Amino acid sequence: MGSSWCKAFCALLLLLIASTPLSARADIYKCTKGGAITYQDTPCEGANVQATHVDEPGSGHFVGCFASDTDNRFNLSVEIRANGAGTYQMIDEHNPLAAGVTLRAATNEELQAVSNGLHVQITEGLSRDTGQPATLNVYSVRTGYRYVVHSTPVATAISPGSLYGIYSGIGSEGKSITLLYRGGGVPQTVIKGACPTY
């Protein structure tokens, strides 16, 4: 009786896996039309359009250009580019020749830290990728005549520098917001738009 349940479960699991789409993700397209660069989730259309398919699932809606929506003299503009392998590059549009900052998908702890600090609901984001490997505490325990090795991850402290990045969520008025945080001070609200031409 037990093996028939196991076979039925395995058959159901295989059927479920086979029925899921292979490409359940949003594709991003970088379109250049008349010198203006835009990022969109549909293929580029029209004559004289140069298209590049950026195949980056996940936080793809962060790919593109963002500018602050305030009219002050400290106006900022950044471009987020997909590098592949889950990393992104943030380029300051006022200094496009700079190396930029490497970003990755923010962890739940980082999203919670931003949410708690700003008193808004942050749902996803990209934060600075420091490239540091995860640290582990490794210890052994003697069990009879043998030793068993265990490891536990060490929690890394979240600092303002590690929260440097771009985040989206729901503001205090209940509207969708996108925030750019540069590690100190107050994050700026940004909106997605066309990339500047040089």
What does the secondary structure layout of this molecule look like, with pairings?
Layout: H1 2-19, E1 28-33, E2 36-40, E3 49-54, E4 64-68, E5 77-84, E6 87-92, E7 101-105, H2 108-118, E8 121-128, E9 136-143, E10 146-153, E11 165-170, E12 176-181, E13 188-193
Antiparallel strand pairs: 1-2, 1-3, 4-5, 4-13, 5-6, 6-7, 7-8, 8-11, 9-10, 11-12, 12-13
- Largest β-sheet summary: 8 strands, antiparallel, barrel
Mean pLDDT: 74
Rg measurement, Å: 22 Å
Instruction: Indicate the overall shape.
Output: extended
Q: Which residue ranges are poorly predicted, with pLDDT under 50 across at least 5 consecutive positions?
A: 18-26
So how many helices? 2
Calculate the terminal CA-CA distance, rounded to whole Å.
Answer: 71 Å
The portion of residues forming beta strands comes to 35-45%
Structural class, by secondary structure, is mainly beta
Keywords: Signal
Domain DUF4124: 16-55
Pfam families: DUF4124
Signal peptide: 1-26
